[in-house]
Specification:
The longest helix is centred in the C-terminal third of the chain and has 22 residues. Strands 1-2-3-4-5-6-7-8 form an eight-stranded parallel barrel, surrounded by seven helices. It is an alpha/beta fold. It is built from eleven helices and eight strands. 43% of the residues lie in helices and 16% in strands. The termini are far apart. The protein has a single domain, classed as Phosphoenolpyruvate-binding domains (TIM Barrel). It is globular and about 70 Å long. α2 runs parallel beside α3.
Length: 258
Amino acid sequence: MNNARAVTLLREALGSPAMSPGTFLGLASPTAIEVAALAGCEWVLLDLEHGGGTLEQVGPSVQAAAAAGIPLVVRVQRPERSVVGWVLDQGVAGVMLPRIESVEDAREYVSYFDYPPKGQRGVASYTRSAGWGSHSVRDTARGVCMIQIETTGALDAVSEIATLDGVDSLFVGPLDLSFALGVPEDFDAPVFREAVTTVVAAARAAKIPVGSLISDPARIASMRDYGMDFLALGSDALALRKGLADQVNHVRQSDTSS
């Protein structure tokens, strides 16, 4: 699967009428991408902000995602021009930008996705995204720009951010946003629920998809009620820990009952 196809698949998944499931990759294992695809995930996100991976895992992860037939998104540690451009050169389908504080931040960072004169992305023809020189750089698919709304500054400016040219999607960072609002991990707090409703409304007005992350399957229903278009179902690390913990508990319960 080439880069253009991956970008198309991601845009189709995020814009689907049904809520699109994916997951975060915190273990930096390309094999986890294959497992996620077999589980039915429609996309995966390599988390370089909080996960165990580094930029060295981006290339192998792109290859694994292509082999598995699903698009890969990368959340960068910081939205720096050189980092965003390099990640896009590796052929990822999209890049998630964390810690946006204002509409000015978002406008600057979005420019890293486009070549001059529109944007600031550096130009090279010998990259994976350009098919190793097999086609013109002008024909390179533009990666999906996903803006995280997880600070009060971004929340206050979300309507403006959503309508910026080049912003393709919004993503509610629930933990950071709950801390920023003074209700840590209280996803039922009125101020948090109001904030999520505001973000979804801004995305709807701008006609772009909006998503979020959960760690508890019980919250899927509430995410659907908000109107989320896509949802990250925890992470590979959370799934591994929970799956093993459930089986370990079964073993211990069988020992005490025998």
